[in-house]
Amino acid sequence: MQYDDADICQRDPLIERVLIGSDEIQRRVQQLGTEISRDYAGSTPVLVNILKGAFVFLADLTRGMSAPHEIDFMAISSYHGGTQSTGVVKIEKDLKTDITGRDVIIVEDIVDTGLTLSHLLDLLQTRGPRSLRVCTLLDKSSRRQKEVPIHYRGFEIPDEFVIGYGLDYDEKYRNLPFIGVLKP
Ligand code: 5GP
Fold first, then answer.
1. In whole angstroms, what is the distance from residue 90 CA to residue 77 CA?
2. From the CA of 1, how far away is ligand 1's center (Å)?
């Protein structure tokens, strides 16, 4: 049985509202797929997916791309100072692909302070890619502490904690087809 976004919201007392509906997400992700395919015509970029939050985004993005590309996965954890990300990252799972001389696109779920991404960019840059760009579904730019170059951005969002479409709260809600806001 298929439920729509509003039904799911109503059934879960912890979800306050839908921020970005599933149809809107699908449309935007297809646009990003088209844009990336056009920009990388003639190349075979490696899409580096940062686990776990970006796995749903990647699954739709890769199917929205007509140009040949490869995918690989990385898992990182940031050390937290209190509730804030310090951005110091530890590699939990590294890439299998040698990205030296390759066109690389980091596929992220959300960029918040930018600290994690900044460290990741520095790290991948040391491996000598031909090019390195960032594609993020969500951007909370009002929270930025470290400027990071974002080449492909799905949606700019306000400073609220969001869940769904891969993003979790306590490892749950990743399966929601929309981006929602939890009740405070
Ligand atoms: P940054 O170093 O940019 O502050 O941290 C980015 C990471 O924090 C994201 O990859 C994500 O794991 C987590 N994060 C930041 N904002 C949110 C949010 O609103 N919801 C969820 N579920 N995770 C978030």
1. 5
2. 31
Q: From the alpha carbon of 54, which atom of ligand 1 is closest?
A: 10
Quote the pTM value: 0.94
Phi then psi dihedrals of residue 127, to 5 deg: -90, 5
Q: Is the CB of 49 under 6 A from ligand 1?
A: no
Tell me the two tokens of residue 142.
């009002």
Question: What is the Cα–Cα distance from 72 to 62, expressed in whole angstroms?
Answer: 12
d(CA 184, CA 128) in angstroms, rounded, equals 44
Q: Answer whether 53 contacts ligand 1 (Cβ < 6 A).
A: yes
Q: Which two tokens stand for residue 14?
A: 């912890």
Instruction: Write out pLDDT tens, residues 20-75.
Output: 999 999 999 999 999 999 999 999 999 999 999 999 999 999 999 999 999 999 99
**Looking at this protein, which amino acid is placed at residue 83?**
T
Question: If DSSP states are collapsed to H, E and C, what string results for 18-29?
Answer: EEECHHHHHHHH
Which domains are present in the chain?
Answer: 22-159 (3.40.50.2020)
Q: Averaged over 77-93, what is the pLDDT?
A: 69
